Amino acid sequence: MNQEPALRVMLATADALFAEQVAALLAAIPGERFVLARGEWSGGEPAGIDIALVDFDADGPPAQLREALEAAGIPLILLTAAAASGQERQLVEAGAVDLVEKSKLTAGVLERVLQHAGRVLRANRRIRQREQQLAAIIEAFDGYIYICSPARRLTYMNDRLRRRTGRNAVGELCHQALHGLEEPCPWCEHERILGGETLRREVQGARDERWYFVVDTPFAGEGGEVSRLAMMQDITERTLAGIGLRQSEERYRSLVENINLGIAMIDTQGRVVMINSGLGRLIGRSAGEVFGRPCHEVFWGEAQVCAGCPGEEAMASGRAVCAEMEKKVAGRRRYLRIQAFPSFGETGSPNGFIAVIDDFTERRRAEVALQKLNANLERIVAQRTSDLQRVNHSLVDEIAERRQLEEALRQDKEQLETAQRELARAYSELKATQARILQQEKMASIGQLAAGVAHEINNPMGFIGSNLNTLQKYFSRLGEFLAAQGELLARGEGGAPSQLVELRRQLKVDYILGDVGDLISESLDGADRVKKIVQDLKTFSRRDEGECRPADLNACLVSTINVLWNEIKYKATLEKELGEIPLVRCNPQQLTQVFMNLLVNAAQAIDKQGVIRVRSSCQGNRVQIAISDNGCGIPAELLPRLFEPFFTTK
To answer: Which secondary-structure segment (H or E) carries 458?
Structure first.
């Protein structure tokens, strides 16, 4: 073990005999741990000494010596002839670590006080070393450090802060010197800091408008006075980058939450990492309920991984995979289109996949219904066309009356074919319109109105079909009459005219010829009614062109009422008060959707027979549309949530 070097002791005394006594006592201390340093202090920093022994007189050691020893961290021991009352106070004022009476000074006493002074010396040196380290750390800190007194005046500034302000502002008010403010900074919590709290926050400078990360903490100075120690670091670039990142994240989050699709992030173990609100509504669960759980369990209620899981295939192949599946979701069978995209970590290896889920159940059901309707219509058209062609072929080369009937029948056939083409074209337009509406919010509305529209179309189609059946019977009788006429004419019998007259009366040929025109007129009227319903439905369901144009809002209201009439007529009496209004520049498709929603809600709010009033008027340069009903109304507690997105009481 290495022995520590001997401590050098300086003796300041005018008593030569006493000096020799002290030297002898030092020599008597075992281990040569203390040596007497030769020479006298002549001012400046004491050099070559570790401990100072000073012969204490009435005035104490010179002030310059005390300050020099204190600055150098050298312990001071006072020697006195006899300890008197009040000398302890003088001891403290002199900055000494010990006081010894000369008459009691022995080698043991001297060793004890010098050992104590040595410990003080080593402690002072450690403190100075730490102070130097702290000073180096402070100067190396790439920010600003200052200390404020309880009166908000600067008592310390590091070099970097002095360079920033261009001066040493110690003694000035901190808010004036650092921020150019006449009043304390609005974010300053000076009193809380003095009360013992430490605060960390980001603030923007009033003078330079830069962003700083500030740590304020209480600091106990000399005399125990608590000040505020502040450390500021310029984080402008990081903050601006963070703001940009947060804005980007907010835009991404808004897109994910508002898109009409379900989105989920799944890890490599098949556990749910994130779902958006669209998927939460589909499965009837919140993000907290599904986080960390197997996706096949919380999404579809299945115990095992789905067969043909597109996510597993996407992770294995490293490419996007799309699949259509029929799943039981929240107790209902749904048709889903699932697109899975592999996601990769920083190392480039897959860390899961992203699933985009589109619920196309309603589209699928509508397609099936349309296919059935199309097949039925095609069968009916084929049957009617076949019947007409067969009748047309049997009447060729007949007499003039037959030609007239044939011409009438041909015209009737053309009219029927025209009506059929109109129906086919209307059906095609409805199918195309429905396909487009399926991609928009009108899907639900059209679905709700389908039964009513079908009922309105079914009425005229019913008597058109009945008229065609009647025409078929008429054509059968005419065919029978013409066949008999031809047979009699071929035989050339004398009584043929009277037999033909009787047969004409029995088969009611004259009544048939008179009734054919009425049947055709009724059929054409029914076709016009179907055409009008289809035209109103086309106007209502036309694709939103996304642009404003002048539109007649009264026409929009009438068209919407015609489409909804089957929903309204059984529940309420409709009172229309449509005034003279000018054309309004607007998006008519969107306004028509609004009118429809209001009228449907009004009808649904009426329990039994009620009244729905629709009014339009022009007030100055404003057009007002008012829709009211005497239904149950909206509960008062739900009124504040009327315009909340996605809120509904259905």
So the answer is: helix 442-491
